[in-house]
Amino acid sequence: DAGITQSPRYKITETGRQVTLMCHQTWSHSYMFWYRQDLGHGLRLIYYSAAADITDKGEVPDGYVVSRSKTENFPLTLESATRSQTSVYFCASSSIAEVNSYEQYFGPGTRLTVT
Amino acid sequence: AQSVAQPEDQVNVAEGNPLTVKCTYSVSGNPYLFWYVQYPNRGLQFLLKYITGDNLVKGSYGFEAEFNKSQTSFHLKKPSALVSDSALYFCAVRFYGNNRLAFGKGNQVVVIP
Question: pLDDT averaged over chain B?
């Protein structure tokens, strides 16, 4: 019963490098989300996906790319990392079944530092 | 557009005293409201939700929340706070038509022994 996992948990990278953060869920939830958490800003949505091969922008999508070829995976790529992308990144998933009523389940987070 | 406001950055309360964390919302359509808690270096954990029905919703760890439509509020409450309740609390509201949630900025709760 792994639930939702993220890897790596910690990452340090240099400005300009490409970085991919992984997210995997075992529930077959339709929806998946990527957030970043920064002091003073709370949680901000980067991208989300309603199903495999369907993705949409959130509040702060610039500089990020997502894909979703399989229901269980939702990787987030920083194409050319910048210091402003230093943050804690959370992945979440949710079901469309009415009984679950839209609550989201969160992964443990990835702390990314861009030097 | 859907949004929530958590007006206080930090709430300090003595152990054993009642705890209240405030949230007001703005939505199109019927509100689906949520509270989450985040402990240090962890992801968010679901506490409770209001979808429909009774205005007083009971959740995990002894928490409850009161939905007030006229005041557009969904305050989180606990009758007797524990030191272990010290954490960051987020209110959220669902976007109409999909599973997206809008989160507030969060409230740091500090329970003083």
Answer: 93
Write out the H or E segment, with its range, that includes residue A42. Answer: strand A42-51
Calculate the CA dihedral of residues A76, A80, A84, A87 and round it to 10 degrees.
30
Closest CA to A31 of A103, A99, A90: A103
Contact A50 B99 (CB under 8 A): yes
Q: Quick one: tokens of B28?
A: 């199109």
B71: closest CA of chain A, how far (Å): 23
Which domains are assigned to chain A?
A: 4-97+105-114 (2.60.40.10)
pLDDT tens digits, residue range A43-53? 999 999 999 99
Distance from CA of B6 to the nearest CA of A (A): 11
CB-based contact, B88 to chain A, within 8 Å = no
What pLDDT digit, counting tens, does each position of A7-49 carry?
Answer: 999 999 999 999 999 999 999 899 999 999 998 888 999 999 9
The domain spans of chain B are 3-112
B51 touches chain A (CB under 8 A): yes
From B107's Cα to the closest Cα of chain A, the distance in A is 9
CATH number of the B3-112 domain:
2.60.40.10
Which of the residues B33, B99, B103, B108 would you substitute to probe the A interface, choosing the one with the greatest number of A C-beta atoms within 10 Å? Answer: B99
Of B51, B61, B59, which Cα lies nearest the Cα of B87?
Answer: B61
A69 neighbors A53 (Cβ within 8 angstroms): yes
